[in-house]
Write a structure and sequence with these properties.
single chain, mainly alpha, rod-shaped
Length: 131
C-alpha cells in the first residue's frame, strides 16, 4: 500500500504504469500483465501525441531522397544517351545528384528521429516530481 500511495502521489507515465499494476496485483500475474499492457499502450499514445508531423517527415525524408536517387540515375542515363558515350565525366553529374539527394534525405530523417526521441524522453521523465 505504501508503493501504491507513492505512485498515486507521483506524476508521470512510470508512476501511472506502476499504480495500475499494483491495483491488479491481488488478481494474479496475468491480470497484472494485462493491466501493464493496457496502461503501456495508453501512456505511449499520450507520449506520442502531437508527434505525427515529425513521424511523417521521418518516414518521407528517405523516400524523397530515394526519389532523388532515381532522378539522378535517369539524368545520368539521359546524359549517356545524349553524348553517346559512357565516360565518367558524362555520368558524374547524374550520379552526384543521386548520391546527394539520398544523403540529404537520410540526414533529415536521422536528425528528426533524434529530435523525436529526445522529445519523447523529455516528456517521459519530465513529470517525475510529486503532484
Amino acid at each position: 500500500s505504501a508503493a501504491q500511495t507513492m505512485c498515486n502521489e507521483s506524476i508521470g507515465p512510470v508512476a501511472n504504469l506502476c499504480a495500475n499494476a499494483l491495483e491488479k496485483a491481488d488478481f494474479g500475474v496475468e491480470a497484472t500483465e494485462k493491466a501493464l499492457d493496457q496502461s503501456g499502450s495508453i501512456e505511449m499514445a499520450a507520449l506520442e501525441k502531437n508527434m505525427t508531423w515529425i513521424a511523417l517527415c521521418i518516414a518521407t525524408a528517405p523516400m524523397l531522397g530515394f526519389l532523388g536517387t532515381v532522378w539522378g540515375m535517369i539524368q545520368a542515363f539521359n546524359d549517356i544517351k545524349m553524348a553517346n558515350d559512357i565516360s565518367p565525366a558524362v555520368v558524374a553529374g547524374g550520379i552526384s545528384v543521386a548520391l546527394l539527394t539520398t544523403a540529404f534525405g537520410l540526414v533529415v530523417a536521422i536528425i528528426l528521429q533524434l529530435f523525436q526521441n529526445i522529445c519523447l524522453y523529455v516528456k517521459k521523465f519530465h513529470f517525475s516530481g510529486s503532484k
